[in-house]
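Troubleshooting: if your tokenizer reports a length mismatch, compare your output against this known-good record of 386 residues.
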Amino acid sequence: MKKLCALTLVSAIVASSGAISGFTLENNNASGLTKNCKSAYLMDYNTGECLYKENETARMPIASVCKVMTLTLVFDAIRDGSLALTDTVTVSENAAGMGGSQVFLESGCEYEVNQLIKSIIVCSANDSCVALSETVAGGEQEFVARMNEKAKSLGCADTLFANCTGLPRDTQYSCAKDVATMFSNLIKYEDYFKYSKIWLEDFAHPEERTTSMTNTNKLIRKYPACDGGKTGFTNEAGFCLASTAQKNNMRLVSAVLGASSSDDRFSSAIKMFEYGFANFKNKIVLDKDVTLNDEFFVRGGKKDTFLVRPERNAYIFSANDKTPEVSYVLIADDVKAPVAENSVVGRIEIYKDNVLADTVNVVAAESVEKAGFIDYFKQIAQNWAM
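Known-good structure output:
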């Protein structure tokens, strides 16, 4: 049986967690943010709120931006334990023979996964993409199938991959909204940011040969708040960019597709970021490092109650001129001892203007040991004395 109780209601400057369905660009002075671009999208990273959109579901080629999904599957494999940053990859002739942007891997030689990931993030290395795809999935086509499965699981309905590099294929496409969604999923991996701001570095090959790498994402130099991104260009796709920037306790993600020039894609991203940071705010409403006022009951433990906390931070996003009301409902599981610290014991539902905005797991902030015979005897004696 579950225990249901209400948390203290808090009024905050917040907004709903879904896309701002009633949001219109004209009302928020957002016209003219992009220049010579076919499609664009701006969203808040923590809540998924859409701040700006322009032909956001139009299907078009995205060139090397598809490596966002390639990197995601590699980091997924590392998370799942089937791959490690220190593992070595033996490069196939197929991988070494890739054209386009590359670090000129040598067939038959070994490279660390760490190196290959870095080369993809920094200089968009096609050969490293194929080498990792063969390692993770046994072959590029199986890897591509997994890319499409992952895209579907993220709700990317207007995305289809045909290779892991982004080299031109008629059957390969995505859209600005899906690109922003996929990039948001990638940057949940903190290891990504170990490489994303590297500007210039040598890639080391066997026998002391090196290849110079320069970051293709010039935004990290043009816009200080930007700490990550993935560029792409082919004649068919034009100039594309997925990027992220962080300022004022808020992280934004943008996508620009089909720009006429490299400068247009970067300037468009900067204008969208500046618009977002100037007109919106992100309010933290639950802090994972702060215990809740409500304690949870436990049956069969050496103590009757224990402290709990949110499993993760929770944010509510809003325009600067909005002040919606936030309320919480705390739902406790039927908890039996023993209780391990950090184990999930319930959840918090967060409501904005009486609409469910987010659900966060509640975890034990301390452990509770199972009561033994002596503990029960002591409790009976205490109750008798009362």
